[in-house]
Structures are given as C-alpha cells and as structure tokens.
Amino acid sequence: MTETPDSPVTADSSLDEELPIGPGASFTFLYYFSTAAFITALFTARTLGVGIMTPLPVEFAMAGGAIGSALGVIFNRSSTLTMPVTSPKKFRQEVTRVLGEMGYSLQATEGSVSRYQKANASRFFAGDIYVQPRPDATIFVSRASNIRTLKRRLSP
User: Residue 137 pairs with which residues in a beta bridge?
Assistant: First the structure.
C-alpha cells in the first residue's frame, strides 16, 4: 500500500503483495484481432488462390478479426472478483473444494497470494487463478471465464 501525504497508512502491511493484473480488454482485443485477422487472411488467400493484399482476403480478415477479438474479450481478458467473507476458515475450504472441482490445485504461495493451476498441458490454455484472502473479503484474479464460474459456484 502506498502512503500519500493526506492519508496515513492504517492497513495491515502483510496485504501489500501485488496481485497480477493481467491483460485487460484493450490488449486482449488487439491481440485476438491481429492474430485472427492474420490467420483468416492467410487462409482466405491460400484457399482462393489470390494475393493476400487483394480486397477479398482483407475483407475476410477484418470479419475474422472482429469475431476472434470479441470471443477473446468475452472469455480471456483478465478480471477480478472480490467476495465478502464472514467465516474465513469455511470460505477457504469452500474455495479449495470449488477450485478442485474445476481441476485446479495449489501451485505456489507468495506472501498472502496463492496461485492455483490446472495439471498437465491444460494449464497453458486455462490460465492461473490468483487468490488473496483479506480480513473481510477474498480477491480472485483470473480469466473472465474462470471468474464467472467462481462467482456462480461461490455465491450463496
């Protein structure tokens, strides 16, 4: 936590560990748009036997990029979820159970931040889930699709 001249630090210093933020909607959109557009342009040009810079592959590339980027933003942008906690021990057990059902297991803990990961090669496609318990809430950071699943399964 940073201290400003106007506000003295009153929070617990053990909560200063940084949660990874990950790429937001803008970066995710650009990444998926450029990747999908490039692949679509190559595929269209190769399939139709025309040059890649002719109008038809470029038009298909724009459409493919728009669809790919929309799906990327919906499912793969980083998102944060803060859940209020009344009983930390019970909630921690529930989180462990839900993450286990989703196929995640604890991989590392740095300070108060725990990193959960899927096993084997699926971890490269599923993304990590970072969990930081606080006195009155727990913060989760992961892909939007994982956050939606956690919110649905952990909500009362």
Answer: 84
